[in-house]
Amino acid sequence: MSNSRYREFFTFLSEEDVIEKANESLEGKNWKPLIENSNAALVSLKAPLVANLFKKLFDTRYAFIFRNAEGELLSETSDKTSDLLEVFLKAATEKPRFEENFLAFLDYFKEAPQILERIVIHYANQIADESESLVTGLRELKILYERVRRTVDHLGVRLPLNEIVSRLFCLDCSLLPMIESDLVDFLSQFPPDEEGVCRFLENQIKLAVGEYDESSIEVQLSRLETIIREIKKYSSTFMNWLKIPDNLFVSFLEKGFRRHGTLASWLEGIKEARTEYGLCQSHWEET
Questions:
Q1: Is 251 within the bounds of a domain?
Q2: Comparing 219 with 140, which gets the higher pLDDT?
Q3: Whose CA is closest to 137, among 164, 98, 107, 174?
Q4: Does the residue 264 lie in any domain?
Q5: Which residue has better confidence, 23 or 262?
Q6: What is the DSSP string of 242-265?
Q7: DSSP string covering 113-171, please?
Q8: Domain extent at residue 37
Q9: Rounded to the nearest 5°, which phi and psi values hold at 78?
Q10: What angle do CA 192, 102, 186 make, to 5 degrees?
């Protein structure tokens, strides 16, 4: 059984039911704590003295114990920590918010890089699910990344956060949103994929131009030309990785033909945009 002297040093392992669970898991044999936090602990059998004296191999056993959200005490035991991977992941991702105190457990898993990635992606997806706007979602994701960055660098993990960023770029945002410098750096490291960029551009155009039936075609085309120009300026400061598709103007026209008005009305609108609002030569030629 566990020596009571450990109780003064550990919080979770000082609880009576936890001690009982550890004794039960390791069949009443002497065990020692390896690491713990407020909800979980990893313990192992103590090697017999003779094994230490003669440097002989000793097959140890490990037990991972944690208290779930319902207060139930759970445990799993194995000769290898790799067999405890899934139960550890369950404990590390059960809370609504990421808890850094589980990171120290990774020292006892050879699969630490994969475990860390799964934990981070779990909470990153949760951020994407719960976020209501692009900027707030990016801020939460950046905070999560900063909390694990030291461990990420130590383990040499390449987190696939681009996919999460792409999901955030599909969310609502203001017209040409102001993005703080640390988020600019974060986006340069984890830019969205093509789908995320397209959704962002569609949202920006909708905010600037409006729906197809909200104003005259010539006004819409003038606004479209303006927002494309402004997005190019904006991206040079906040998103220098953002590439504006060459067919963005024509794509808007094609959708307009299908959704609203007649071909004749669009041709007339294009003409008016050229004569009344000074539609630029390149966009005139494209139309």
A1: yes
A2: 140
A3: 164
A4: yes
A5: 23
A6: ----TTHHHHHHHHHHHHSS-HHH
A7: HHHHHHHHHHHHHHHHHH--SHHHHHHHHHHHHHHHHHHHHHHT----THHHHHHHTTS
A8: 1-80
A9: -160, 165
A10: 20
Whether residue 208 contacts residue 264, with contact meaning beta carbons closer than 8 Å, is answered with no
Position 130 scores a pLDDT of 98
Angle between helices 134-155 and 112-130 (to 10 degrees): 180
When divided into structural domains, the chain yields a total of 2
3-state SS class at 78: strand
Last residue within a domain, chosen from 80, 105, 140: 80
Edge-to-edge order in the sheet of strand 73-78: 31-36, 40-45, 62-67, 73-78
Last residue of a domain, one of 24, 47, 80: 80
Contacts of 112 (CB under 8 A, 6+ apart): 106, 155
CA distances from 68 to 36, 71, 119, 121, 174 (A): 15, 5, 17, 21, 40
Beta pairing class for 62-67 and 31-36:
unpaired
Structure tokens at 276: 């009344």
Report pTM: 0.87
Rounded Cα–Cα distance for residues 89 and 121 (Å): 12
Return the percent helix, strand and coil in the chain, to nearest 5.
60, 10, 30
103 lies in a domain? no
If you search the block for the tokens 């990153």, which residue do you land on? 124
| Identity at 15, one-letter amino acid code | E
Higher pLDDT, 96 or 253: 96
**Contact present, 44 and 63 (Cβ < 8 Å):** yes
CB 64 within 8 A of CB 84: yes
Residue 54 lies inside a defined structural domain of this protein:
yes
